[in-house]
Amino acid sequence: MLQMDNSPSGARVHLQDDTEFNLSYVLRIFRQHRWLIGGAVGVVAGLAALYCAVATPQFTSDAQLLIDSDQARGLEVLPQLTGVMDSATVDSQVQILLSESIAKATIKELKLVDRVKAEMSRRESSVVSTILKPILPFLFRSAPLSDYELERMQVADFAERLKVQRIGASYVISIAFRSADSKLSADAANQVAESYIVDQLEAKYQATRRASVWLQDRISELRDQALAADRAVQDFKGKNNIVDTSRGLVSDQQLAELNTQLITARAAVAEAQARYERVATIIKQGGLTGSSDEAVSDVLNNEVISRLRTQYLDAVKREAEWSKRYGPDHIAVVNLGSEIKGLQRALFTELSRIAETYKSDLEISKARAASLEGSMEALVAQAKLTGQAQVELRELESTAQSYRALYDNFLQRFMQATQQQSFPITEARLITSASPPLKPSQPRTVLIVAGGAVLGLMFGIGMAMWRDRMDRSFRVPADVERYLGLDCLGVIPMISTAASPQVKDGQSGFDFSSGVMRQVVADPFSRFAETIRSVKVSADVSIMDRPVKVLGVISTLPKEGKSTISANFAQLIAHSGQRCILLDCDLRNPSLTRRLAPGRKVGLLELLLGKATFEEVSIVDPVTKLTFIPAAVPTEMLHTNEILASERMAALIEKLKQQADYIIIDFPPMAPVVDVSASTHLIDGYVYVLEWGGSHRDLVVNTLQNAPRVYEKVLGCLLNKADVAALRHLENYGDKYYYHNYYARYGRDN
To answer: What is the dihedral of CA 33, 35, 41, 47, to 10 degrees?
Structure first.
């Protein structure tokens, strides 16, 4: 905003920044540049519609593929060759479907290269190609494309038309293909799925084949290692005399049997020793007794001993009976005693023989036990050596067993891998086959046209904002306040000058009742007249405490309408019954004088120099009684600012104040000359005239910055030559600056 700075250093003005970007600004852009924005929308939307009309319809078919990890689980025999099905795995399958290998396989199955060849051959043999090729050879290929080039072109084109994506977080993959042929789009989508399944089968086959080859080599290696380990075990057994049976080592079995025999032999020795000692005790006692010989079971079981004993007992019994009957001295008793002694001797002799037999058995038992003990000691020594060897043998057997187990495991895996090569199953299966679509998917007419309209709208708004930013003129009253810090006294509409009369030399503009210079008189109820009235009201309010009102009408550049405003403003004041004098102080280019009093020879200069009286230089309007003092300048004048700043000019103004209520002065433009700055001591207030859409904002600001004393006395600005129809779209209805829409015609409706 251009504002005054009343600091002690002096008055200065400042420029406010450009308009802030807000809703009001956007709405104003829409209203002001509606035709530009609408044209941009129409052009871009029309181009989009034209594209939709001429574009080749494209059909899109969609097939759906499911990655089912449970499908082959029952037949999976090599779990180490498969991975866990997760999100990354599904995303990897999407990239495989988009790979070049799948594209090549599909192109080969659908014979797309052959189709392209046939299409190119048809084009080359067409009438248009036959005619244009000699004339425009650069448009045609000199040599036909090779199969490799055609294939590469088809792969690139196929990749652009193919769209593969995962459906949400599921294991379902959508395969969409776009083509001008609806049947081809469906065939291509289905063939991509089929090529993918075949590729997966081939990949599994190759994986199991490589695994089988590796397993076969590993099996051969493990077989050799297992045989070597078994051979080392057998060699070690033979070297250390280790013989195995189904019940264990032979040495261990021999040691167990020998131990059993030794125990038996020792028991036999003890038994023989007991029998012998018992018999020896009986013999040492000198004979048999009734109880001592009963402990020896062999004695009792001996027939000879039993018979002799029976005879002995019978003889003793008879001896006792005979001794009792015949007496101990009877010969029969004595003979019987001798017989008894003979029987005792026979028993003792037989018992001694049995004792010798027992002794022989005892010696034999001892010899056998000693022999067994010797054999036992030899076997124990041998067992100790065998036990030490078995430690190393067990290690060799463990190694051999490990190699054998590995060999058996890998052999089983090899057989499984060999069988798996023939399994025609993968994790993927087609759950929805693509079918030829009935309607094209592209171009999407509604969407494209709507997008074109939106793009056109954005482009139009951008162009409108650019134009608004580039437009440095004043178009709405708010611009005056925003950039100059001054009040906008009104917006004056453009008035056509076609009907204005041509004033000739010797005539006065006041002689005519119409024309742009007489607008407030010819049409006092017009918007133009009402706006001029608002200027007068603003002037009265601004300087109501002063007895005389001297107002200057200024502008930045020529042809902005200040002279027209000056003439009509003065006529309006005079027509209201007040005394008013209109001065043309534009001594460089007195346009007001040329339009109201052309050909005048005397004027303001003569009045200042005293060469003419007030009555001689003044022209009075017979209708409004306005007094006009022209500026009759015979030639170009220098130092006009000195004239306006002179004491004579000040004295003249003071003299005119006594004759009029208002003095309206038409000054030259401020940018070309400095006359206005020299008149600040004469003027109570200035009315700044800006051309609507014509006055350059930066120039006006710079001009006022260079004339701070003029800026201090500016009552307000007038936007002149406004396009009322365009202004309706620049301001909101009911804005404080637009109230003249109604009051300009108020009272006429009745």
So the answer is: -130
DSSP 554-600: EESSTTSSHHHHHHHHHHHHHHTT--EEEEE---S--HHHHHHSTT-
Residues in Cβ contact with 220 at an 8 Å cutoff, skipping those fewer than 6 apart: none
Q: What is the mean pLDDT of residues 524-543?
A: 80
Tell whether pTM > 0.90: no
What pLDDT, on the 0 to 100 scale, is given for residue 141?
A: 59
What tokens does 401 get? Answer: 């067993």
Q: What is the pLDDT of residue 517?
A: 81
| Residue 13 CA: distances (Å) to CA of 1, 5, 484, 679 | 9, 6, 9, 19
625 class by beta-carbon count within 10 Å (0-12 exposed, 13-18 middle, 19+ buried): middle
Place of tokens 């029969």: 332
Q: What angle (nearest 5°) sits at the alpha carbon of residue 279, between those of residues 277 and 282?
A: 110
Give the type of residue at 289.
Answer: T
State residue 736's pLDDT score: 43
Q: Which residues contact 252 (CB under 8 A, 6 or more apart)?
A: 383
Number of residues written out for the chain:
750
Q: Report yes or no: 659 and 581 within 8 Å, Cβ to Cβ.
A: yes
Rounded to the nearest 5 degrees, what angle is found at the Cα of 694, between the Cα atoms of 688 and 700? Answer: 45
Number of H helices, E strands in the chain: 26, 16
